[in-house]
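INFO  loader      accepted 1 record
INFO  loader      residues=292
INFO  predictor   begin
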Amino acid sequence: MKLMLGGLMLALLSTTAPRCVGAQLPPAMIAQLKKDAAAGDAKAQYHLGLMYARGKGVPENDVEAVKWFRLAAAQGFADAQNSLGFAYRYGEGVPENDVEAVKWFRLAAAQGLDMAQSALGFAYRYGEGVPENDVEAVKWYRLAAAQGLADAQNNLGVMYTSGKGVPENDVEAVQWYRLAAAQGFAKAQHDLGVMYALGEGVPENHVEAVQWFRLAAAQGLAKAQNALGVMYARGEGVPEDYIQAYKWYNLAAAAGDTTAVKSKNRVAEKMTKEQIAEAQRLSTAFKPTKTP
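INFO  predictor   done
INFO  writer      dumping tokens
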């Protein structure tokens, strides 16, 4: 019975996204997981750490999460090494320490874990825990991007757009933005929209730009909402529509985009009170879509 219970539990955990680990697990399964973790099972230690980190099935406790991540990481469990790295990066359960974070990211990245490779690329890009080195950042972003990690694909696109660590190449940037955008990654959808709007790496196409801005804006990305407002205000890629422009500016402004605040005020000067009221109604009714 214990073998069956343990096997079923690990099967459930192994097919569950990290942030949902432990959700709705029966008490008997949680008890067995704790027993396996205490006995030194690295996979059980890692999943127990995730449960404590997210408060799923157990009280949320970052210190306890780090304890189990560390035990699993010490056994070479890559996911635990990566999680321990993020704990140090953000100071969750341990004092914030970028050098220590890099140490654990590097161990997991060496095992081929895409999230750790991307995290290591980020550390080199911004000089967190290591000297800033764009070439090294590109190296790690590329390894993660090649495995299909959308965040790394987008970051690699940014490096090509800016010519950081690689020669500037808008065509190559578009390739990586498109791969990430196709996975529903909002930042990449916005960046791809910018490339179409400006004709960089692709022929200028405002209709295509609006398509990508809309997808990112629907997910709640403020800069994409502002960009979509601009397109409606100017009638680029869509018919000129001040109500829609105000709606998207208003949403972006509410999310903290200061540029959108000024743009909303400018477009409001061209609108009737009734039009403004309708735009505000549309803003209130907006519900962001979930990422895939």
